[in-house]
Write a structure and sequence with these properties.
By secondary structure, the protein is α/β, with parallel strands linked by helices. It folds into two domains: about 220 residues, Spore Coat Polysaccharide Biosynthesis Protein SpsA, Chain A; about 100 residues, Rossmann fold. It has an eight-stranded mixed β-sheet, sandwiched between helices. Strands 11-12-10-9-13 form a five-stranded mixed β-sheet. A hairpin with a 2-residue loop joins strand 11 and strand 12.
Length: about 350
């Protein structure tokens, strides 16, 4: 793809009157002018529809679709049905796009081997009060290459949804947003990655990702932890079936209660735990639920076992991965991280 590639910006809108004007203005200022913004008003009652329709009257690149309130999946899929452009960018009604966002992401999409292009995002919130979200932004901003994005997909969602730009053909070939007991965007990334789609990020902050109090990840029950971990465990189990030479046997690194609860979802898919691995000498040498707890040096050598670091904190995860690497265990051949 090369400029002037037409691109459609898909923006679901619900009760966003306070932030919508700034979001729309940031799109109107894009250096890549060949775009259409498909804004889907999801039954707003706060004046959002009026703001959208005024923008459409002022700038023919903006189109408004209105539906009765039905939730983000319906809004997204309604917008997708109206899009004919070969590229689709996502954006939310409370975020701000930098002027060259579309231009820079479309440049990367010129590579025919790439199906989706993200970018680094600026955290648009109070980092002190929202420390967890700020840490997540830092983490995802470090995942820039197809390899790091794919390797970390079972830890957390590697892509902030409003920051992506992807080929419309992905929707046609692999399906779009699904309703279910899971986040619709993460489900999409997992399915597309499972299909072999390569994803990359522009190493620039091209979007300010605002952390509003009513963000869906805070208030929507589909984002509750139990549903989140259960859903991605199914994708991880499928990945292990295809890539673990010792399937269905694995070693789970971490034996704490939270780790065990999250990893337990794998057992419902037939994955067998040979042992938990832990650095705490108070735990090693014991059994939990009939599964032995061993110290890291007791792991079989590289090639003789598959390890899943399931430790909860990122600092501990990085140390675990470094320990495995130093001893010859290769990522995705001998281990893959999850959470």
């Amino acid at each position: 793809m090369s400029d002037p590639t037409p691109v459609s910006v898909l923006m679901p809108v619900y009760q966003a009157a306070a932030t919508l004007p700034a979001a729309l203005h940031s799109l109107a200022q894009q250096s890549h002018e060949h775009f259409t913004c498909i804004a889907v008003d999801d039954g707003s009652t706060d004046g959002s529809r009026d703001i959208l329709e005024q923008q459409a009257r002022d700038d023919e690149r903006f189109q408004v679709l209105g539906i009765p309130h039905a939730g983000i999946c319906t809004a997204l899929n309604t917008g997708l049905q109206a899009i004919r452009s070969p590229a689709i960018a996502r954006m939310d009604a409370d975020d701000i796009a930098q002027p060259r966002r579309l231009e820079r992401q479309l440049e990367r999409l010129q590579d025919p081997a790439i199906g989706l292009v993200g970018c680094r995002v600026a955290f648009g919130g109070d980092a002190a009060r929202r420390e967890g979200y700020a840490r997540y932004v830092d983490w995802t901003n470090g995942l820039l290459t197809p390899e790091t994005i794919a390797r970390n997909r079972f830890v957390e969602s590697p892509l902030p949804h409003p920051s992506v730009l992807y080929r419309r053909s992905l929707i046609e070939q692999h399906g779009g947003y699904r309703e279910g007991d899971f986040p619709e965007d993460y489900d999409c990334w997992l399915r597309w990655l499972e299909a072999g789609i390569r994803m990359v990020k522009v190493d620039e902050e091209l979007l300010t990702w605002n952390d509003s109090p009513d963000r869906l990840s805070r208030v929507d029950p589909r984002y509750r932890p139990a549903a989140f971990y259960a859903h991605k465990a199914g994708f991880l189990a499928q990945w292990l079936k295809q890539n673990n030479a010792h399937h269905p046997a694995v070693y789970i690194w971490g034996s704490g209660r939270i780790t065990r609860r999250r990893a337990e979802h794998l057992r419902t898919h037939g994955i067998e735990f040979r042992a938990y691995v832990d650095i705490d000498p108070a735990k090693t040498g014991k059994t939990i639920g009939g599964i032995p707890v061993i110290a890291p040096p007791e792991l079989p050598p590289p090639g003789a076992a598959f390890v899943i670091p399931y430790v909860g904190t990122r600092g501990a995860r990085a140390k675990t991965e470094a320990w495995l690497h130093a001893r010859g265990y290769r990522a995705e051949l001998h281990w893959i991280s999850a959470a």
